[in-house]
Write a structure and sequence with these properties.
Blueprint lengths: L30 H12 L2 H4 L4 H21 L16 H12 L7 H19 L2 H10 L12 H12 L2
Helix pairs in contact: 1-3, 1-5, 3-4, 3-5, 4-5
Length: about 160
């Protein structure tokens, strides 16, 4: 499988998922079924540095799991306004849920939101290569991104604008 196009040099150090290992996954509404996506975000050690220890890995795992659930439930559109709260994006919702689940953790809401943004970047980065990874997406039962057929340059530009970078 070709390596996915990436939005940051740090992401290039995270190896792409081997699609041959996805055949045994359960439906995506179970945690087991989400593991293929969550694993992509857990491999964030190089992005967050080497002194963070297991606590940050645990937090990143939880945030990535929320991100994966939200992305699957909303067709990967993490940045659309949510009904009933037009000021909150998907990333905000992921961060809010993570804050609630990780009460007592040493990281504040801003740090969790940053981790949620990273998880969303990984999800989008992986989904952005859908033309090369359609088989992988189908195997985990995920919907193809609504912008999967966009031109790559326009796609990257839209993602960067949505991320505010």
């Amino acid at each position: 499988m070709d390596a996915p196009e990436v939005l940051s040099p740090a992401f290039a150090r995270i190896p792409p998922r081997n699609t041959d290992q996805m055949t045994e996954l359960q439906p995506p509404d179970t945690l087991t079924g989400l593991s293929a996506i969550v694993e992509m975000s857990i491999r964030a050690d190089n992005e967050f540095g080497r002194d963070c220890g297991d606590d940050l890995t645990r937090i990143a795992n939880a945030v990535a799991a929320h991100g994966a659930r939200y992305a699957l439930a909303h067709g990967w559109n993490l940045f659309c306004d949510n009904p009933g709260n037009s000021r909150k994006t998907g990333i905000d919702r992921i961060a809010d849920r993570s804050v609630a689940d990780l009460r007592g953790c040493s990281l504040g809401a801003a740090s969790l939101r940053s981790l949620a943004a990273f998880g969303a970047r990984r999800l989008i980065d992986w989904a952005a290569s859908a033309r090369k990874n359609q088989l992988a997406l189908v195997k985990i039962g995920a919907p193809l991104p609504y912008w999967a057929d966009d031109d790559n340059v326009q796609l990257k530009q839209r993602i960067l604008e949505n991320l505010g970078t």
